[in-house]
Design goal:
The protein contains 15 helices and 15 strands. It is an alpha+beta fold. The longest helix is centred in the N-terminal third of the chain and has 26 residues. The termini are far apart.
Length: 470
């Protein structure tokens, strides 16, 4: 009697323990001889550890926890930190798999994990057809083209059937998100060529058609980040107005999906990407996102200090964006006179903020002089502004760099109290601006090596616009 009660009690404990596991993923990984494995999920294109488990000497490993895993694409990272086993986490969170490290796709078998099994079934079929096509190309039979087309038809038929039969699955949603928009036949131009502009516009207009912003699980896949990268960096003209328009378009799609975290990610992406952008003149995107989404509370912040810091940054950037007239500044000249930014007479005016004690500034100084000598006949004028140090060091630096033909200013003595950091965004030296003849900012915070390429590009673009306007 006591023995029976003990057995029943043990059974109860086992059942209760199993019930407490909101997720349990058991893997048998042949070829793995023990070691620590990581279960990691995607956020953007990066992997973040979610759980760890120790594999035994036979390659058996179990991940489990008392809280359900957020849905998405996960990777089992093996001890070598190179081998990854992809898992699709959706409704099925109590499943097992068997795989071999020598051929994960070919060997994978999954029990009760439908989305993961669907993924590997799909990959296995497609890989088989790719291998068959490769073998045909190497063998070069007489009817090669026909056999390749047969394989392509088989792939297409399988794809269509797979997508139809498994339409409600998370795996199909992932496949749809990863495919390119299918392009219809493009119109033919009068010259007989395909209208490539029409094709581009169609592609861009349908780029987001198969991406489900209403599915919060998409945040934990690489595809949202990848699509944002492609859309903004490759399909959008890198100007403030064009980028701002597309930001609002994509955020609008996310807001229609009503998933808070997805909305937040699509807002944070341009906010982060264009705060210190690689493309000249696109900081205005950061300002636009801050004012439209952070100031209004559409993008909530956990504390008021973060919003205050954002506003402080916007207040610095807004007067200094490309297209704005730079605030005037008067500093002490070599002849004990005051020299002013707005008194520069060049068609193109370069401001070079520097410190005489700065090593990078010293390296850049000869390049600044060489640029001036090469382009002064094209209307280039340069004003250097020393932001600190004593006058003796400043004058010594100017003489050593042979800057006598430049407009040189000693910045600590100015016509008004200023902070170079706040008033001119000089957070490091050297800091370079390019202005037009009206002192409107053409480029800001570019490197000395970028001066010549930028000037050439700007001149070419201006000439093309003038030709078009005629």
């Amino acid at each position: 009697m006591n023995k029976s009660i003990a057995i029943l009690f043990l059974m109860f404990l086992c059942q209760n323990s199993f019930a407490q596991s909101a997720f349990r993923i058991e893997g048998q990984i042949n070829g793995l001889k023990g070691g620590s494995c990581i279960l990691a999920n995607y956020v953007g294109t990066s992997l973040y550890p979610k759980d760890t488990a120790q594999a035994d000497a036979n390659g058996r490993v179990v991940f489990e926890g008392t809280k359900p895993l957020p849905g998405g694409i996960y990777e089992v990272v093996l001890p070598d930190l190179k081998t990854l086993i992809k898992l699709f986490i959706a409704a099925d969170q109590q499943f097992s798999f068997v795989a071999d490290t020598t051929d994960i796709i070919g060997s994978m078998k999954v029990k009760k994990g439908r989305d993961t099994q669907l993924f590997y079934d799909f990959q296995r079929f497609m890989k088989t057809k790719e291998d068959q096509a490769k073998a045909l190309r190497e063998a070069k039979p007489k009817d090669l083209d026909k056999k390749i087309k047969d394989l392509q038809d088989q792939r297409k038929a399988y794809y269509d059937q797979f997508m139809k039969e498994n339409a409600s699955s998370f795996a199909v949603k992932i496949f749809k998100a990863s495919v390119e928009p299918e392009l219809p036949p493009a119109p033919i131009l009068p010259n007989g060529k395909t209208d490539s502009t029409w094709l581009f516009n169609y592609y861009k207009a349908h780029f987001w058609d198969s991406f489900d912003f209403a599915d919060e699980r998409m945040l934990r896949t690489p595809f949202l980040q990848q699509k944002l990268d492609r859309y903004f960096k490759e399909l959008t003209v890198q100007t403030e107005d064009s980028l701002n328009k597309e930001v609002d378009y994509v955020v609008g799609k996310a807001m229609a999906g009503k998933q808070k975290d997805v909305i937040g990610y699509t807002i944070y992406y341009p906010f982060n990407e264009y705060q210190n952008p690689k493309i000249v003149g696109t900081e205005g995107v950061f300002v636009h996102v801050a004012e439209k989404y952070y100031y209004t509370g559409i993008m909530p912040l956990s504390d008021t200090s973060s919003l205050r810091q954002i506003k402080e940054r916007v207040n610095v950037l807004k007067p200094l964006l490309v297209g704005k007239t730079i605030p005037d500044l008067g500093v002490l000249g070599l002849k004990e006179n005051m020299v002013f930014i707005h008194d520069l007479k060049g068609s193109y005016n370069v401001l070079f903020f520097y410190m005489p004690s700065c090593g990078h500034c010293r390296e850049a100084a000869p390049k600044i002089k060489a640029f001036y000598e090469k382009y002064r006949t094209q209307g280039v004028q340069i004003m250097t502004i020393a932001t600190d140090g004593n006058q003796e060091d400043w004058k010594k630096f100017v003489k050593e760099m042979q800057w006598e033909n430049l407009v040189n200013g000693y910045g600590p003595v100015a016509t008004r109290q200023l902070s170079y950091n706040k008033d001119y965004d000089v957070v490091s030296t050297p800091t370079i601006y390019i202005l037009d003849k009206n002192k409107k900012i053409l480029a800001r915070r570019i490197g000395e090596a970028d001066l010549e390429p930028f000037l050439k590009m700007y001149q070419q673009r201006t000439a093309a616009q003038a030709k078009t306007s005629k």
